Amino acid sequence: DANYLSNINFDSLFTYLAKLPNLKHLNISRTNIENLSPKIALLKNLETLTLIGTQLQRSLMNFQISQNFGI
């Protein structure tokens, strides 16, 4: 439920998820995440982070476009 995830504290979430040593894939699509907490580094085995429909995804896409086209 997207409404449940809209109020999540991502620092706390990443700290909690760090206790799952086999976590390789994390989907936080359609949440209110706007920037990536340094605590994501606690997820040592994370291979895939899915951000579809988030402000962070849009920011990363804009950054990539500006880097590619010198905007």
Describe this protein with a few key phrases.
single chain; 71 residues; mainly alpha; 8% strand
Explain this structure.
By secondary structure, the protein is mainly α. It contains 3 helices and 2 strands; from the N terminus they run ααββα. The protein has helices at 2-5, 10-17, 55-69; strands at 25-27, 48-50. It has a two-stranded parallel sheet with strand order 1-2. The chain is globular.
Biggest sheet strand order reads 1-2
Work out the helix count.
3
Sheet bearing the most strands, described?
Answer: 2 strands, parallel
| Overall outline | globular
User: How much β-strand is present in the residues?
Assistant: 5-15%
- Structural class call reads mainly alpha
Number of strands: 2
Helix fraction bin: 25-40%
Task: Report a brief summary of the structure.
With 71 residues, the protein is mainly alpha-helical.
